[in-house]
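--- STAGE predict ---
source: upstream dedup step, 1 unique chain passed
mode: sequence only
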Amino acid sequence: MAGIKDINKQIIKFVIHILNMSKDMLPIYEAFPEYPVSSTMWSNEEIEEVGKQILLNIKKPSQIKDVNDLFDIISDEFFIQVKEMSKFSIDSLLERIQKRLDNPLIEYVFSTPISTLSNIGFNFEIGRHDQLIIKNISNKNDPPQMELKGTLIALSDRHAYSQIELHVRHILGLAIALELAYPVLLRVKTLPLTKIKGLFEDSQPLDPNVSGLASMIIFREPPTDEFTLKRIQKNGIGEVLKGLLERIRLVMNTNVNHGIALRSAARLLFDAEASHDEGKSIAFALMSIEAALLEQKQHE
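--- STAGE serialize ---
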C-alpha cells in the first residue's frame, strides 16, 4: 500500500486535472509549485490510472466504487476549499479530501415537482429511509401543484439526483397503476427543476424523460367503478384516497420480494409512459406486466 505522501501526490494530480477543466481558477495554480500546471495536461487515460491508484489505497469497505465517484468527491472538496478560504491551502485541501475519502456520504434535502397541475391536492407522508413526503405546495385558491420532498444520504450530487429519479419513477408508476394519476398530452416548454441541498445548493431538471412525464402528471380523484363508489358513499372520498395512498406507502417501505417486484413493475410502467419511442414504450409495458405477474405467481 502506498504511503500518505504518495497518495497525496496522486490526489494533487487529480486536483490539477480539475483545475485544467476550470479555467477561471488559474490564480490558484501557484499553490502547486511542484507541478507546472500551465504546461501540464493529463489525458483522460492517465487521470483514470491515477484515480485507480488512489482507489486501491483508500480504506475498505468503501462506498467509493470508481474514478467518477472519486472525481465527484475531490472536486466537491476542492471547490469548498476555494469558497471558504481567502488564501488557498494545499495542506488543508489534502486533509479535507482524506477525511471525505474515509467518510464519503453526504446528507441531502431535496424537493422535486411530480405534478405541476392537478385535480386534487393532498399531503401524505410515505416515509421510507429517505423520509419521503408528497406535498401540495400551491396556495389555497390555486390549482394543486404537487412536490415530492425528502432527505437522503448519497455520495455526491450525481448520486442524489439518481436516487430522486428512482423515487419519482416508483411513486408515479404506482399512482398510475392505481388510477390515482395519469399523464396528459402537453407540450412541455421548460422542464421543472429539482432542488437539492447537500454541500452546496443546486437545482436542475432530472433526466428529461423523468422530468418531462412528471410535469404532465395529473392527480385525480379515485376511479368511480361500482365498488369504489360504494366505498365513497360509505366512508367518504378522503378515506378512499387515503387507502390508495397507503398502498403506495406499503410498497415503497417494504424490502420483501413482494414489494421489490411491485416497485420494479411500477418503475417500468412509468418508463413505458415516459418513452417517446413506441417500440420501447411497448417493451417497457410488457416488462412491467411480466414483473407484476411473476411477483403474483411467486407470492401465491
